[in-house]
Q: What sequence folds into this?
């Protein structure tokens, strides 16, 4: 067994250093330097063919990306096995077939390969005194072929890993069989621990490229982690942060005033868009947090925040020429201490640090980025009724249903003012015309979960996890839990609802608001806040659209938006125009709607909406003719394409208004 507490300590440093770190005065780009291992596996998988006609050439090609894994100072296993294959391809083919026979004991296969290599050295070695086909090289062949099961064996690394992780696995010089079996057990235990670390898994996936083996079982990551332990850990131990905030102001301060921070915050060359997002994230959670806490709340992985802060601090130092903390005090936190104070998190979060914004910076953020919220125009129920042309009873029902259910779909024919009503419904519940708490999207056939919630999108030569509009809006709403937020979806039934919503199908339900579920893409917990209302709009007159998924239908209430010709608001508007032709035309449209509502093939969801006649301060016959000829009649031709007599009758009725 290994000591999990010690493993967690090492793991915290490994994650911190995974992309890059300063070592011996130079930047060591860890992933860039070490990803060749994953590339070597993928290359081998793509080129290995044990039945290849030219086995020697195939073997040479398959091993060509292994670099120092099969060659180092005074050690040349790759060259020797390729030479043997060239001299006797069938013998070497047979050796690999036996080595890759998973029906036999692993050590017996390794030992047989080693003994056969000794025989080949005598036959084909020439002046060579070694064949170099020992446990290290042979386990490398096994790992290349079965990367989801095996690891690279190296005795010196095993000893160091076992010592640092305080394991009870023992390794003795020359005890090859016992060493191999203990090595596999110890690495399997480490691999299982790495798979449990969601932060590490996200970090690893975020850096993978198409040229790398995806390593689903994290066996190659285990090899890399153990290499880090043996070669870097002792020199990369964290600075001695204890329970007090570090560093003591008497020892170090960057001497940047509030005024200087204000100027820096307004300088896009220092605080770029990503930096402002991260620094605001720290501020919005109270000024102090771990990177893991930010990742859980706002998305991305913890290293995303760490990397952005380090680069930001570097720019701040160059812009201000502020002093740096002495290297001997904090080599690993020298950049962070410009903007933050730090201290260790709780014991169960080994190797994790809480970072607190410096007081001067926090004050500047409040002054520069969080000015008092602007005053918004008051918006009341009376304002809604004067604009939307709905009866007061219908408004009370609509508002009550939304606030009770949290999710509602406004359904009706074109022209009844669904979109117009949705935004004003939100304003009326907020009590002000505040669009900063409203988000508006429109679904279409290609709209996906990746657009709505999150998904991997191209970023240079790799892919990066991007967060969608709904994910970001939920985080925004969570930061102000005492205020209502409204997410409005136009044409909600045009999208593939199950595909777009995914696990949100449960989370948007009223009874599950605030309940956290683990997301498939980033493995992080997520919930839809209770103060977020979803308003969808659906066109009931478009017969080409599929009906809404029944599982999703249960999460929404459905509210019919009907023509508002008889509402007090519309009647007041109609009277203000004082036009006899308009009055006569609206009377005919109301008769038309009665016939549409009684038509068994149509129904009231196909009625003509009042919005075709809205938005005017003066009323002309030219405008009214255009409404009839280019809005209403084309719709009727669609409705009654197979009932020409009925269509002709209504054309005569509507156009007859102007003749009379």
A:
């Amino acid at each position: 067994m290994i000591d999990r507490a010690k493993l967690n300590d090492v793991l915290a440093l490994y994650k911190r250093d995974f992309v890059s770190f300063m070592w011996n005065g130079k930047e060591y780009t860890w992933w860039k330097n070490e990803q060749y291992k994953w590339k070597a596996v993928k290359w081998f998988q793509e080129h290995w063919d044990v039945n290849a006609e030219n086995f020697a050439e195939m073997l040479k090609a398959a091993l060509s990306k292994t670099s120092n894994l099969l060659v180092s100072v005074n050690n040349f296993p790759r060259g020797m096995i390729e030479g043997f294959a060239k001299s006797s391809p069938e013998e070497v083919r047979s050796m690999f077939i036996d080595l890759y026979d998973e029906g036999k004991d692993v050590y017996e296969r390794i030992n047989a390969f080693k003994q056969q290599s000794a025989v080949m050295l005598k036959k084909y070695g020439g002046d060579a005194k070694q064949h170099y086909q020992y446990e290290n090289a042979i386990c490398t062949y096994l790992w290349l072929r079965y990367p989801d099961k095996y690891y690279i064996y190296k005795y010196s690394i095993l000893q160091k890993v076992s010592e640092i992780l305080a394991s009870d696995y023992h390794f003795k010089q020359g005890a090859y069989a016992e060493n191999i079996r203990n090595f596999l057990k110890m690495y399997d235990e480490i691999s299982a621990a790495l798979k449990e670390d969601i932060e590490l898994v996200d970090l690893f996936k975020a850096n993978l490229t198409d040229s790398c083996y995806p390593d689903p079982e994290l066996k190659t990551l285990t090899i890399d982690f153990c290499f880090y332990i043996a070669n870097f850990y002792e020199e990369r131990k964290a600075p001695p942060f204890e329970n007090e905030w570090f560093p003591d102001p008497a020892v170090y301060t960057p001497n940047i005033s509030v005024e200087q921070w204000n100027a820096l915050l307004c300088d896009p060359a220092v605080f770029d868009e990503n930096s402002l997002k991260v620094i605001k994230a720290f501020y919005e959670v109270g000024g102090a947090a771990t990177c893991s806490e930010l990742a859980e709340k706002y998305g991305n992985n913890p290293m995303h925040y760490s990397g952005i802060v380090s680069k930001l601090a570097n720019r701040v130092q160059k812009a201000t020429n502020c002093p740096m903390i002495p290297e001997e005090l904090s080599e690993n936190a020298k950049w962070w201490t410009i903007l933050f104070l730090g201290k260790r998190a709780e014991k169960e979060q080994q190797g994790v640090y809480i970072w607190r914004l410096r007081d001067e910076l926090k004050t500047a953020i409040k002054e520069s980025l969080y000015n008092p919220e602007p005053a918004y125009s008051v918006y009341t129920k009376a304002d809604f009724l004067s604009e939307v042309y709905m009866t007061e009873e219908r408004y009370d029902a609509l508002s009550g249903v939304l606030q009770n259910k949290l999710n509602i779909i406004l359904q009706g024919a074109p022209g009844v003012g669904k979109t117009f009503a949705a935004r004003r419904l939100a304003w009326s519940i907020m009590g002000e015309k505040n669009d900063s708490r409203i988000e508006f999207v429109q679904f279409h056939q290609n709209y996906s979960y990746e657009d709505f919630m999150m998904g991997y999108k191209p970023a240079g030569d790799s892919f990066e996890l991007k967060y969608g509009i709904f994910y970001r809006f939920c985080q925004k709403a969570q930061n102000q839990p005492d205020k209502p937020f409204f997410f409005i979806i136009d044409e909600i039934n045009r999208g593939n609802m199950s595909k777009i919503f995914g696990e949100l199908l449960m989370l948007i339900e009223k009874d599950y608001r605030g309940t956290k579920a683990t997301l498939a893409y980033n493995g992080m917990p997520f919930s839809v806040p209770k103060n977020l209302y979803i308003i969808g709009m659906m066109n009931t007159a478009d017969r080409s659209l599929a009906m809404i998924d029944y599982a999703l239908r249960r999460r929404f209430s459905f509210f019919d938006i009907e023509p508002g010709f008889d509402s007090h608001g519309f009647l007041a508007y109609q009277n203000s125009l004082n036009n006899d032709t308009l009055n006569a035309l609206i009377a005919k449209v109301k008769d038309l709607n009665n016939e549409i509502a009684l038509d068994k093939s149509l129904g009231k969801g196909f009625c003509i909406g009042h919005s075709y006649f809205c938005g005017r301060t003066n009323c002309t016959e030219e405008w009214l003719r255009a409404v009839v000829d280019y809005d209403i009649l084309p719709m009727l031709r669609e409705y009654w394409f197979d009932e020409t007599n009925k269509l002709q009758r209504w054309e005569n009725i509507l156009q007859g208004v102007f003749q009379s």
